[in-house]
Every structure is written in structure tokens, then in C-alpha cells.
Amino acid sequence: MKTVVGEQRTIGGLPMGVVWGFVATLIFMAGDGLEHAWLSPYLIEKGLTVQQSATLFAVYGAVLAVASYFSGVLTEMWGPRKVMIIGLAAWLIGQVLFIEYGLKPNNYALMLPTYGIRGLGYPLFCYSFLVWVTYRSPDRILATAVGLFWAAWSGGLYVVGSFFPAFMLPKIGYIGLLWSAVVWVFVGGLVGVLVVNDDARSQGGNPKEKLKSLLSGLTICIEEPKVAIGGVVRIINSTGIGSLPIFFPLYLHSKYGFTTEQWLQVWGTMWFANIIFNLIIPYISDKWLGWRKTIMWLGSFGMGVMLLVLLYTPQVFGSNFLVLNIVGIIMGIVLCGFVPLSALVASMAPEKKGSAMAIVSFGAGMSYFIAPAIVGAFIGLIGVHGVIWVFAGMYFLGTVLMHFMKLPSEDKKNQNDIHLEKQVG
Known about the structure:
Blueprint: E1 2-5, E2 8-11, E3 14-15, H1 16-33, H2 39-45, H3 50-78, H4 80-103, H5 108-118, H6 121-136, H7 142-195, H8 207-223, H9 225-256, H10 260-277, H11 281-289, H12 291-317, H13 321-335, H14 341-348, H15 353-401, H16 408-424
Helix pairs in contact: 1-6, 1-7, 3-4, 3-5, 3-6, 3-8, 3-15, 4-5, 4-6, 4-7, 6-7, 7-10, 8-9, 8-15, 9-12, 9-14, 9-15, 10-13, 11-12, 12-13, 12-15, 14-15
């Protein structure tokens, strides 16, 4: 439903600029995700080792983690549009240099810095837009606005970014897909830059104060240890699932004959299910399970189990594409168990939510570094089965860590229960 508030047109209470920004985010992230699920096997086919491919993604992840952490303070200092332009430019420059000087001549030494430059792109572009969304969206629908942002982000990166190459790969090839990504990102970036303005940026404080505020995200881990634990769980959240495209499609192809196109369809279907149930699982969490138990049992424990199911499914059912898709769908649903984590961590430091969320964002970015680093370190020693068990073990560790992530209200209730038992005794 469209309405007009003054001269500001809105849809469902959201300003038109914000709505178009969601469209821009989806298009931008579709371009960013076009190669994520197949680039590693392709590089290995071109002569790189699994360890070299993992190192490439680790460098990308390290840059991405830093950009994720600093995107917020740069937006506060310079305004969202300027930071988005920097992110867009970094992505386009990095991509073109990566294709022409790294990938085409198979020059590994140049792949590393050029792909790293590209890692600056989406955090600066998308997370700066997210900050703008929090300023422009009315408080009564802010949660909905943030949810729509993540739906657009995931829909572009994982759904369109998987199904588009699955169908276009036989037609335009790998290099063609990488060049098409330039078009996707340019169009999405242009739309985003045009609709976003700097009129809603924070005006308080000078750059030094804002930088000090950002660095408080490190000290809060000491002041509030539960926030640090939440950051570790956020790393675990994306590390196991994010590691799969690096080595698992190659394993499926060499052992069971699954094609790259089939893997991309499984990957895309999994994330499509994830987006749908992202709207359902939080409701169940709020109404019945609670945030902590949802993350503990459905997210952490559930993902540990599903990684092992994914590993052993081809051994039981062979190259059954339908069964692998079903496993992927269940995994996408289980992964939704981590959705309440941001709200839980923010609740651990109600007076410093910004600093707490900086740790969550940094954890999300660090997973892009840690996942390939673990693959590179262990794949040659313990093989695919061993690496999957390592990541499953990380999820099970997350289950244990969530035991300590009780809300202040839960701790108070437990203390009252103990006191009552002593009195009765």
C-alpha cells in the first residue's frame, strides 16, 4: 500500500528510497555471489591446489572482516552515499583486475591482492546502506525494515547468485559469468547511490569521538564477556556453512559425479528455504523456544548434525540429486536457528548496543576468513571427512557456549529459584 507523508512517498510505512535500496541490495549481492559456489573448484581445475584456493578465500575474508567492522563508523563520519560509492568502486576495480590480470593468465600472485580489493566492496556498500535504513525507517517498523534488508541480501547472494550461474554457465562459461557480475553490481550500485542521500546520517560527535566509539566494540568484550561469546557463536554460525563451496562441490563431482550446475541448484534451493523460514523460525523462537534455546538446539546442534548428514548422504544414496536437495532444504531451515543471535547479543549490553553489534558484524566477517583458513590447514591432513567433522565439532561447541548466554532475566530467575529451594529446604 502506497501512502504519501508530506512529500515523502512510502510503501507500508517505508520511504521509497529505502524500498529501492532493498532492490539495489538484491541486485548488487546477486553479482557479488555469482562465483562463490563454483570459483574454488574452477581454480583447482586450472591447476591451483585446494590449499591455494583456500588461501585466496582467506585473504578475501580477512579484508571483508575489516571492512565489515569499519563500515559503520565510516558511514557516521562521511555519510552513507560516499561510503557506498567507495564500496562500489572497490568491487568493480577489484573484479576487473582479478579477471584480467589474475584469472585469465592464471597468475596466483595477482589473484590474491585483486580478489582482496574486491572484498572491500559489499561490506562498505551494503552495510552503509543498512545504517541509512536504521535512520530513515520509523521505529515501529524498524525490525521489519532490517529483516527486509537481510532478505534482499541473502536473496541476491545465495538464491539469484546460485540459480543464475546454474542456468547460464553452459551458455556463457565461467569467464562470461564473472563479466556478467560486473553488470549486476554496476546496476545495483548505481540504483543504490541514486536513492540514498546523507540527510539522515548521525550529526553528533566529531570523527575522533566516533572512531573511539567504534573501538569500544573491542573493550566491551572485556566488560561484557557474554558479548564476546556471542561474537564467537556468530563466527561459528557462518564458518561451517560458508566453507562448503570451497571444497565440497569438488568432492561431490570427483566421488559421485554431481555437476557444478547440480551443486549450484542444491546450494540455491537451500538458501531459498532459508529465506522462507527466516520469517517463521523467529516467530517460533519468540512464542515458545526463546532466543537462547533456538540458537542452542536448532542452530548450533542442528547444524552440526546436518553437516554430518550432508557428508554421509551420498555414501548412502549415491548420486541421488533429489535426496541431496532435500538435505539441503532441511539444512537451510535449521540454519535459521541462528536468526535471534543479534537480538540476544544486543540484549546482553542494553546500554551499548552499537558496540555489541559491531562484534556481531565482525564475527560475520571473520567467518569468511576462518572457514577457508581451516580448509587450507586441514584438508591435506585429514581429508574431506575430517574437515567436515571439524566444522561439525565447531557447531557442537556453539551448543555448549550458548549455555552461558543466559539473559539477565534468566539469571535472576535462576537465582530466585535457588533461593526459594534453600528456604523450602
